[in-house]
Amino acid sequence: MALEGTLRDFSLADIFQLIGLQRKTGVLTLRSPEDVVTVSFLDGKVVGADSLNKRIEDRLGQVLLKTGLISTHDLDDALRIQLETLERLGHILINRGDISRDGLRKALEQQLLQIIFRVFRWQDGDYHFSQETSIDFDAELVTPIAAESILMEGARMLDEWPIIEKRIPHRGVVFVATPAARHADIATAEEAEELESFEFDDEQPPTPPSGRVRISTVERDVLYLVDGVATVDAIVKASPYGEFETCKALYNLLTRALVREATRDELARALESTVEPAVPPSPAFRFPWLALVFIPLLVLTVVLAPRNPLNPLLGPGPHVAGRLAAAASWARLWGVWQTLHARSNLVGSYPDSLGDLARERLLPEGASLDAFGHPFRYVLREDAVVLAGSTPDGAPDPNLMLSHHMESEGAAAWTGPGASLVTP
Prior knowledge:
By secondary structure, the protein is an alpha+beta fold. The protein has 3 domains: about 5-165, no CATH class; about 175-275; about 320-415. Helix content is about 40%, strand content about 15%. The protein has helices at about 10-20, 60-65, 70-85, 90-95, 100-120, 145-165, 190-195, 215-225, 230-240, 245-255, 265-275, 290-305, 320-345, 355-360, and strands spanning about 5, 25-30, 35-40, 45-50, 125-130, 145, 175, 185, 215, 260, 375-380, 385-390, 395-410, 410-415. A 6-stranded antiparallel sheet has the order 1-5-2-3-4-6. The protein has a 4-stranded antiparallel sheet with strand order 11-12-13-14, covered by helices on one side. A two-stranded antiparallel sheet has the order 7-10. Helix 1 runs antiparallel to helix 6 (about 145-165) and helix 8 (about 215-225) crosses helix 10. It is globular, with a radius of gyration of 26 Å. It starts with a strand and ends in a 10-residue tail after the last strand.
C-alpha cells in the first residue's frame, strides 16, 4: 500500500484510522522541521514508536525514574552494563531484579504514547508508510495498542491543548502555590470521577460542604512539584505523568487559584535562596610568586592568540579591520554560548532556537547576530549543542565554533572550537 503525502492534506488521525481498519503491518515515518518520528504497526496495532530528537522525558530510563520504579543508582549500573553487553536496557533491569515485567511493560507503553501524542500536535509535516511482511519488536514486553484507542485519546488532547496553552503559553513559566493550596484535600473515589468528567469551561467543579477544595491525586502530585523555582518544563520532566496530564493538572490548579504565576521579585528571591554562600577570602596576603613565571607566558598567549586582531603573525596591517570584526563576532558568540548554558542550568533544557532567548528576555534583540550581520548557527541535537559563526561572506567559520557533547544522561564532554559543523 503506497501511502505518503503531507499532514495538511491527510491528518494523522486519518492515517491511523486507515492503517487500523485495513490491519496493515509496516512502519509509518513522520517528518517535520522539529523531529522525525517512526511508528511501527502490526496488523493495524501500534507496537513501537521512536523519535530522532527524543526528549529526555521520553527516554525509557527517565520514564522509570519519574514513576519511581527504579533509582538513579540502578539506572547508572544498568547503563554501564548496557555499554559492555549492548543488551536492551529493559532486560538488564529485569535480570538484575530492579523492576518487574509488568512495571517495565507499563513504562514502555507510557514512553510510546508520549511520542505519538506529541506528533498529534504537529501542524505540518510529511508522512510515508512502508508496508512490511513482519515487524521486529519485543513481544514479551510490548502490548500492541489498538489504533482506535490512540485516536480517541489523541482527539481529546487536540481539543484541550489549545485551552491549556492559553493559561500556560510556554514551558518557561514558573508557578508558586497560593495559601489556598495548603487547605486542599484529596478527592474521594466519587469526587475523583466527577473531577475527571469535568470539561474545560468557565464553570468550576462544585465545592464540597466543608468549603475545602478537592483535588485529584494527579493534581496533588503536580502541586507538590510547584516550588516557585521549577519551570513548567522542569515540572514535566520531574512529574511521574505524561506531558499532557501534567500540564492539564497545572491548568486545573491555576483555574481553581491553587497556584499562580511567580513574579520576578519572587523568582529572584527564590533563586537567591538556592545559591550557596561564597566562602570569604582569607585575610592573609601572600605574594603571587608563581605569577612571575606565568606572566610572560600569558603575554605571549595574548599576542599570538589566533583570535587576537593585533596578532602581528596573522598578516599585514590592512587586514586588521577584518580581524577586529572577527574578534567582535567571537565575543558575541561567547556571550550567547554562556547564556545558553545559564538557561540550561536554570530551566533544565536548551532552547529550541536562539529566538527563544530573546522572547524569554535572556538576550537583547540582535544579540544573536555576528559582527557581519549574519545570524549565529545554532544546532540542538539529543547528544550535542553546536553554536557557530560565519565568515564575512556568510560561510561557516571553523574558528568561530563552540560545541557541547552530552555523552550520556547527566554527563557531558567539551569538544571546543574547531569541531565539525552540523548544518541545520
